[in-house]
């Protein structure tokens, strides 16, 4: 009997429910390959917590894997906050089973004597992050799989500051979880410790979002927005926040407004994908809207489409929106007074333009590993510094520190403020971005994601990254590679001079090549999906806005050449 079957048979004990046992027995007898997929490993925490396909098995999201997580977290909280009344807050998104899994997680916490605030209905991830501090909780949980396909769900853990768990908490919590067997889960709920929450927290969150995202923009009455929640949670927050901020010309895509974990109108509920916003863009063209906003299921990512120089609606990428949002915030701070302790934040695979722009304003740009948990950690690690805003290329942005995760609610309002004010002054969001390119350099990026599912896919991803390292790129489009940054070894090496520098960030499976002309190529596996990702960044000088089309075409051609060289 192999180890996988042996592991699966432990799920046939009396501890597991009859439905689970029946499915396990069926897999053992009839589908050994599927059994292997479900039990060949334990589902692990990645950059965004635990995320995976729903179903029975150790490599799946179910009541037992999440119950074990919650039991381990309960044990850790009771160690750290001994002799205190421990409180947690729990939210969930639109996905299949999110509501029942959230209730189950609440019951395990309560069975361990922990007070639980449970949102009565689905809510956004940024509101969960906000609620941790607002309710003075020790931790928070959101049941979500972000923009993953419908068969996925997930479990993200937040700490007392409202940010996702980071070292040393994450390793300590994982150690507690790993020390448990499934039979150690306490499912005997104490319903008296579970309190439903909704409108009071909503009100506080809406007020904070409007306060942090509003900048007295002109032209709101003449600014037309098309908004889609892509069947997700943002329908509970963004329309209300826009209304309170003074935006009355908001067209909601009704076909996508109802929360639905099947995401019936899109192939993927991911605003990074142009197809996801197709319906909203068509509506925007029909009604003459200025901007399209679409969010992912838990409302931490936002996609923005605006009118380009030809007057057509064009989807911007995460780097573009991040750059202009950050520039706008820097301008606001500069008008009021920069005190010298401010900083903005970005990640190692996002556009280098963030650092160039911050330097021009005399503001520090801190760079983290991929994932907003690291940006949240910066705020905690530097309490005497003021965080202005920051983001990453994957369509996430955070305005100030009242929420400690990417926040599509407040960021949507900020984007509208920028665009409405620009239009009132005879410009546009798109033209303001081009002006930024003139002032700070024209940086253009491209992301390539390759999906590799299952056991064989995981091995293929591993081998691709090994090959990328063991067969180093020597030049890119005729430009010599100068630096190779290996985040696995924490060493950046100048391959021309032999100079080495220590990378002062946690180790991570990321490799970055940088050439003499500033081109950057990064490779890493996704922390939450069966994907390997390649990030291409190029740049050029843009002397005048009138030269934008020519230089843009030149950078497009360069990116295509790079992809051809790398066989991507």
From TrEMBL:
Q: Which SUPFAM superfamilies match?
A: Phosphoglucomutase, C-terminal domain (SSF55957), Phosphoglucomutase, first 3 domains (SSF53738)
Gene3D superfamilies xref list: Alpha-D-Glucose-1,6-Bisphosphate, subunit A, domain 3 (3.40.120.10), Alpha-D-phosphohexomutase, C-terminal domain (3.30.310.50)
> Which of UniProt's keywords are assigned here?
Isomerase, Magnesium, Metal-binding, Phosphoprotein
This protein is called Phospho-sugar mutase
One GO BP annotation of this record: purine ribonucleoside salvage
Q: Does the keyword Oxidoreductase apply?
A: no
Cofactor requirements of the protein? Mg(2+)
Q: GO: which molecular function terms?
A: magnesium ion binding; phosphopentomutase activity
Domain Alpha-D-phosphohexomutase alpha/beta/alpha as annotated: residue spans: 44-182, 209-305, 317-437
Among its keywords, does the record have Magnesium? yes
What family, per the record? Belongs to the phosphohexose mutase family.
